């Protein structure tokens, strides 16, 4: 025979458990780029000016 719960799981307990496992994804942390001042993800090349740790990595074409 399979295991059977001894008591009913209350809706509050069930919601508390699900709140931990099915939590909404949080927004990524953003920091300001030291070169252009735009908000970018940390430890990534800035897509606006193409720098990483104050070094030019990418050439950004301006229209």
Protein model, in words:
- A hairpin with a 6-residue loop joins strand 1 (31-32) and strand 2.
- The chain has a two-stranded antiparallel ribbon. A two-stranded antiparallel ribbon has the order 3-4.
- It has 63 residues and is an alpha+beta fold.
- It contains one helix and four strands, in the order H-E-E-E-E.
- It has a domain at 28-63.
- The mean pLDDT is 89.
- The chain is rod-shaped.
**Low-confidence parts:** none
Strand order of the largest sheet: 1-2
Structure class: alpha+beta
Radius of gyration: 23 Å
The N- and C-terminal alpha carbons lie at a distance of 70 Å
Sheet having the most strands = 2 strands, antiparallel
Percent in helix: 10-25%
Tell me the series of helices and strands, N- to C-terminal: HEEEE
Rounded mean pLDDT is 89
Number of E strands: 4
Individual helix count = 1
> What percent strand?
5-15%
Shape annotation: rod-shaped
Topology:
Layout: H1 11-21, E1 31-32, E2 39-40, E3 51-52, E4 55-56
Antiparallel strand pairs: 1-2, 3-4
């Amino acid at each position: 025979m399979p295991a059977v719960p001894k008591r009913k799981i209350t809706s509050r307990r069930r919601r508390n458990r699900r709140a931990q496992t099915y939590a909404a994804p949080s927004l990524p942390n953003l920091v300001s780029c030291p070169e252009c001042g735009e908000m970018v993800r940390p430890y990534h090349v800035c897509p606006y000016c193409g720098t990483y740790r104050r070094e030019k990595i990418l050439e950004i074409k301006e229209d």
